[in-house]
Amino acid sequence: MFIAKVTGTVVCTHKDDSLKGIKLLAVQPLKDDLSPKGKTVIAIDTIGQSGHGDIVYLAKSKESSLPLDKDVVASDLGIMGIIDNYYVGGNYNE
């Protein structure tokens, strides 16, 4: 698992049937000090409540779709929850 900040939404004209009804979001992975790490990636919103500016935690691979209770989902990255408070080594985000 790792943390990221939601930076935008993704709108698709066509997408895999397993993703119908699931929101896609652009997220920027973050380091422990909440600075950007790497490139922006696309994640499915398994909780359905994430939005722009939220700090979220994500799971990769097969685990990314476990909360959806579907056999197969075309996803490599899924939002598992929204972080309300974050404190690591002197850096605090509320």
UniProtKB/TrEMBL annotation:
Pfam families: EutN_CcmL. It comes from the Bacteria. Keywords: Bacterial microcompartment, Carboxysome. Gene3D superfamilies: EutN/Ccml. The keyword Glycoprotein does not apply. The keyword Glycoprotein does not apply. It comes from Virgibacillus byunsanensis. InterPro entries: EutN_CcmL (IPR004992), EutN_CcmL_sf (IPR036677). Coiled coil: none annotated. It is found in: Carboxysome. This is EutN/CcmL family microcompartment protein.
